[in-house]
Design goal:
By secondary structure, the chain is mostly beta strands. The strands form three sheets. The chain has a six-stranded parallel sheet, with no helix packed on it. It has a five-stranded parallel sheet with strand order 2-4-6-8-10, with no helix packed on it. A hairpin with a 5-residue loop joins strand 12 (100-102) and strand 13 (108-110). The chain is globular. The chain contains no helices and 13 strands.
Length: 122
């Protein structure tokens, strides 16, 4: 995502580029963050790159940090090990059908081991 305007609030994106004319007043969280504009807030990213036109007022939490000559940083730079983001599928597996088959005597036989057979009324 590319931001070139003024944002009053937090920004979260996997891949984020802050343009030279952008001003962010809030925290930034992302995997890869490249900043050329102004950020007033905390930055947390796996890879953080500050170009020569970047102006940062706030702490930077990073695994990898690159700062070009001319960038302004007022805050702490902390190397941290960020947890891996693992996407979990919405459904763990196919749902088991709850089937009970009744014989002529009215007794049920479970086709699914999680289902307790019931007597079927005649």
């Amino acid at each position: 995502m590319q931001l070139d305007g003024i944002v009053d609030g937090d920004v979260k994106s996997q891949l984020l580029a802050i343009g030279e004319t952008a001003v962010i007043n809030g925290s930034i969280v992302g995997d890869v963050i490249r900043i050329s504009g102004t950020v007033n807030g905390e930055i947390t990213g796996r890879v953080v790159e500050l170009t020569q036109t970047a102006k940062i007022t706030g702490d930077i939490n990073h695994e990898s940090l690159a700062i070009e000559a001319g960038a302004f940083v007022q805050g702490l730079c902390r190397h941290v090990e960020l947890p891996q983001v693992v996407e979990v599928p919405a459904v763990a597996g196919p749902a088991k059908p709850n089937l009970v088959v009744a014989d002529a005597a009215g007794t049920g036989t479970a086709k699914n081991p999680d289902v307790v057979p019931n007597k079927v009324a005649s």
